[in-house]
Amino acid sequence: MSSHGFSRRHFLAGSALVTAGGFLAACNSGASSTTESSASTEAKDKNKDKDKVDYKSISGKLVMLATGGTIASQKDASGALVPTVSGEELLKKVYEKFDKDKLSIEVRQVSQLDSSAMTLKDTDGILSQVHDTLKEDGVTGIIVSHGTDSMEETAIAIDTFLDADQPVVLTGSMFPFDDPDTDGPDNLTLAVTAATDPKNKGKGAFIAFGGKILRARGAYKMDASSKDGFDTNASGEIKRPKPLPLTKLDGTRVDIIAAYPGAPGELVIAAIDSGAKGLVIEGMGSGNVGGDIADAIVEVAEKGIPVVMSTRVDKGLVEGTYGGAGGGATLAEKGVIGSGILRPGQSRILVVAALATGTDVKELFPQE
Length: 368
Hints:
By secondary structure, this protein is α/β, with parallel strands linked by helices. It has helices at 38-51, 87-95, 120-133, 151-161, 184-195, 266-273, 291-301, 328-333, 344-357; strands at 17-19, 60-68, 73-75, 81-83, 103-113, 141-145, 168-171, 205-209, 212-215, 219-221, 230-232, 254-258, 278-283, 307-311, 337-338.
């Protein structure tokens, strides 16, 4: 089996997560009791003080690229949410927590979109802004305010082309700007702390959300309504491929095809016949499909068209362990590339990036 096919490894989710003091609640696994000793209470108070973030001491020169999303949305006359709030307005109250003599934050409005409406052309615009901004004198980090629906895709796109030490941190919210319980300010504050944290230098792009700071690679939206909306499939140290030269993604078509019980092979053939240059299969379980669609996948892969196998399951690795026509092990032997920790959305972005830059797709899917 190819080393770039599916791999079978023990897996522990969530290790590629950086905690920020004051945002992640500490879990006490000790035995519960109805009373606490004064010593225990004092120790907890000390830990709380230790975890508090001294916002006034944070320094640096950040640029915030505002792109819209729920964080910038409020209800219109019909009650529908529309992204109308500027980046300047989003940052206004958050910035009051910091010392402006030490921390400079400049806001640039890149777009005003619901992220579900974003195209590769919009992604190219963000990538270009990130690339140009990081070349400016003194910039120590970038924040991107973004909708949550496609945040994981934009995050890995930035990470894939990011050839600089400055961290780029994406954030947004699950509740809109005009909601009394909006999570936007907390997430934006967390993004500022992540973008100015020296420990994040040279580690690529991040998502700051719901009290967690996640590396871009392997992150995904896990909940459509909870403030704790994002999680990661990464564990331990992330193998981040060598950054690619910035290249236009728009115009390179890669399709995602969902495999379900009884899915026909015509889905695969139709995608290629209509112009797809690569495919990501949203398989079942650890990366398996039925026999009919498997035959079509193998036919396409044998023609040299890149096919990546991912899964519809949130947690775990895509592993080539099953035989049979549509089993992961069989498909890996035929040249289908396992996505590892990546889910379909991020996998698609990497296939697009590889095709656009003339890179071997396997290089962007190192085994975790």
